[in-house]
TrEMBL record:
Organism: Pseudomonas putida
InterPro entries per the UniProt record, alphabetical: DnaJ_domain, HscB, HscB_C_sf, HscB_oligo_C, J_dom_sf
NCBIfam families from the UniProt entry: hscB, PRK00294.1
CDD domains according to UniProt: DnaJ (cd06257)
Protein name in UniProt: Co-chaperone protein HscB homolog
Gene3D superfamilies: DnaJ domain, HscB, C-terminal domain
Any one biological process term the GO annotation gives: [2Fe-2S] cluster assembly
Entry-linked HAMAP family: HscB
One GO term describing the cellular component: iron-sulfur cluster transfer complex
The protein's role, per its UniProt record: Co-chaperone involved in the maturation of iron-sulfur cluster-containing proteins. Seems to help targeting proteins to be folded toward HscA.
Domain J: residue ranges: 5-77
Subunit structure of this chain's protein: Interacts with HscA and stimulates its ATPase activity.
UniProt similarity note: Belongs to the HscB family.
């Protein structure tokens, strides 16, 4: 008996397309039920179990909430273990990454807030397109390599989006 599947924890079918509002609502319900404060008067063992359940629930929620982490998790539970670090054999995307990086550096150098906002919108469109592509192919064994490639692209865009948010905060100050 291993740890329950993250999806099962939230009474969801394993799928890439999720209703994130429903996920958040279910998370809040479950979090209240296993919150360690509720076990303040319980035995030490029950307190420890409550802490473990709370931590497990939080980890499951963070994984399912994030598109790239959810993609990686789906590939893993469908028997496709994805190595953490791997050479990306994706020259087209590597070129695209370089272009995005240069553009972001230029926006940073020129402190162009409007440009950053436009960049962020384009990034969001690219992320949504990747999510759709992944959703369409992750469950097809014949397209596993493509699904993994898409998941890696999603991870990169997620990291880039984080850097864009940091840049926005710096420029806002």
């Amino acid at each position: 008996m291993g740890t329950p599947c993250h999806f099962a924890l939230f009474d969801l079918q394993p799928d890439f397309r999720l209703d994130l509002d429903q996920l958040a609502t279910r998370y809040r319900e479950l979090a209240r039920a296993v919150h360690p404060d509720r076990f303040a008067d319980a035995s030490e063992r029950e307190q420890r179990l409550a802490l473990e359940r709370s931590a497990g629930l939080n980890e499951a929620y963070q994984t399912l909430k994030s598109a790239p982490r959810r993609a990686r998790y789906l590939l893993a539970i469908s028997g496709h273990e994805v190595p953490q670090e791997v050479t990306v054999h994706d020259p087209e995307f590597l070129f695209q990454q370089m272009q995005w990086r240069e553009e972001l550096e230029d926006l940073q150098d020129s402190a162009d807030l409007d440009g950053v906002a436009a960049f962020k919108r384009r990034l969001k469109v690219a992320q949504e397109a990747l999510n759709e592509e992944f959703a369409a192919c992750w469950n097809d064994a014949a397209q596993r390599d493509q699904a993994e490639r898409l998941m890696r692209r999603m991870q990169f865009l997620d990291k880039l989006a984080y850097e864009v948010r940091q840049l926005e905060e710096r420029l806002d100050d």
